[in-house]
Amino acid sequence: MINFAELKPRVNTKYSFVGIEKKGGKLIFHLPKGFTQDDPNINKFDFKCELFFKLYKVMKIVQNIYQEKGYLQKNIKINDRDGVLKQEAGKEVIINDNQESIFYSKLDALDNILDVYDELKILALVSRLSKSETIDYSKIHRYLHKSTFLNNGAIFIDSIDIPRQQISYEASDIVAMYCYIFTEIKQKLGENVNPEIAALSARFRQKYIGYEYSLFSENHYSLIINTLTDALEAIDNYTALKDIDYWDFYDAVEKFLFGELDDVEDGKIWGFNNFHSVWEGMCLTYLLRYTNPCFVCYLNSRYIASEIIAHLNYKNRIIDLSKIFHVNGKDIFPDAVIISFQTKNNRSNSTLPDLIRPTTSYKIEKIKNWNDLQYYTTFKCNKYQLKIALLNQNPELENHTFNELAKFCKLEGDTLIVNSLPNQFYSYWEILDDFNLEQLQMMENLNHIFYLALKFGILSPDRFFQRFIDYVLGSEYLLKDNIFYLSLFRDKDRLRSLKEINQSFSNFLNKIMNKISIQVIDIKYANFDYYLNLGNREEIKSRSIRKQFVYEYLIQNYLENYQSTVKNWSINSEFWLPTYRKNLPALTPGTKYMDDYVKLTGVNIMKVIDSYIEGK
Q1: Can you tell me the distance from the alpha carbon of 251 to that of 240, in angstroms, rounded to the nearest whole number?
Q2: CA atoms within 13 A on the CB side of 288
Q3: What is the pLDDT of residue 170?
Q4: pTM for the full model?
């Protein structure tokens, strides 16, 4: 197994390989771009160990995705000049865009421990024949030849072999040893272990190691490896019966302890030959997980798992740009196009409200002495007087919405502490003139009718209310016989006309439309220094900026033929670049670039990796 203390981290800005390489007899750990060589943390044992296991898990996820999409061919060498495909052990090859992307996977020490895992086999071995002090008198005649005959004619039997009827942790030590190593690896991968397997691991730890020591610890690593080596030798010497199951576990443990890294030739041992596609897949997966699908106008899904793509509901997209990226008979695709909003300083903000996990809590107080035709829906929140209603709220019960919300939200007297409303609740309040991103966030969290209308793709005040009711309740419902008309849109003691309701939505659109833009996102696997180096300016213009012009041109042409409300939306481009500092947020705005034509956004690589593997 790898000794992380001896692993030498290296950041090479011109090298696309990420993983472990043997060079001059030493093991080099090539880190992804975004890390810096002068960061003292990258030399720490715990950092190298943690990053390796995270990348190991990323590789398994990516391999599954590529297998699902048909990109993956195992153990094939494709660059034979005669066109003959030859096997090359330890490698897996995918073909994409006429390029060769290779997963190097020669770490049999780790793979074998995980691959040999068979819970049923382990538990079956645990419950096999073993010594028992319990006497089964119906079978005593089978043990007379082992008995001691006493002078009084009685016989003495020390023990007999019987099948155990319950799980017992007196299993072969080779199984317990395997379970210990397996459990330690699973803990580093952040994955759960069956309690029975964990108990076997604890048994081995108690007998051979002690609870205060950990396998993947800088202070104990060499000691534990030596202890395990001695234990394996002792177990092998004192195990009389060695069946095929024994050898399965023995071989896995032996390869883990002794490995073959010292014997392999110099070269790449484990990792990703072309990390760019992996980086793109991780970033876009992160974007999808934290962005409401309705704001995603287009997404290149070639490196994204099908279950992640499945939640993109094309019917609910505000604008669908999936079919416009063609020019001169050729398809050209950005990585993602999303609807974005302007922040207070008028800079485009790709972190949509849905990209920001709602940390704000709202204190909502009920107003007791008011009802709308027996609908009790009125509340107060800060400077807003708002109404919140349950979709099927019954006015005949004269039950305040407060009582229903109390089932889902924290309660402090007559005040509800709300982070976000459940889906079956809807709200409405008048939108103030000082409308900003924070208010938009509140509209999303509290299911404001106008915010939901945007999500439904309603971008025009024309017949707004009818279209909204059709979407929520169905076309068979009457426009003036529902809780939206009778309560949420009611103005004190009078019912508003449909024209007034539509005009109110028109006023909201006027306030928000000049804050909306289309954001074209391209995932770049390069450092900030590359883009900020003036010597690279012409190359970047040729390889990247020209494509952004084409993307924006195609989008603008499409918007010109769309509803009038979106024609004036600005279109901005953004490059996502890998970066790392421990306390950085997931997304950090960079400096102005190309006269602010393109926004550079730093993406915290560790936070994106964490999100990627936690979602599995």
Answers
A1: 17
A2: 25
A3: 40
A4: 0.80
